[in-house]
Specification:
7 helices; single chain; mainly alpha
Length: 167
Amino acid sequence: MKKAVFFSMLVLFLMAISVGSAHADLDGFLSGLNHQANADRNDYGLRLSAQFGVPLPQVHSILRSVQSPADAFMCLQLGRMTNRHPESVLQTYNFNRGKGWGVIAKDLGIKPGSPEFHALKRGDFSFTGHPGAPGHSKPQGYGNEFNDGPGQGPDKEKGKGKGKGPK
């Protein structure tokens, strides 16, 4: 019985440490982004624009609208992950300000337990300032534009055709 209690306590302890370290990883990543932005704010904006394919004036607008430069990166990253316009993500950010990126991600449709949600919690992102950065993908639907989410844009009727498809 003592072994079972000890084992249970050990498992709970290890789970608590892993949750804390995942949060620290995202916080560390965001802290590093803020440090880079504070060193050269203009270069930071250029790199955000290049990596996410968002025009520089729009990036500057986002940077003025968020609490920290790292928040601008996260708005653009979550926009890419959810295939939404940066303005749509910014609205969700403003509505949930202070509740954490997990709450914002859930409101944007990223399911807890999904690979995307785990990547968020780990801070498993890269900021190279290049369109070919790992994980970089062009949003679907409008070429280089973002969709507002499922059922939006020119492909909203995709999959609802009357044809029988290939046999």
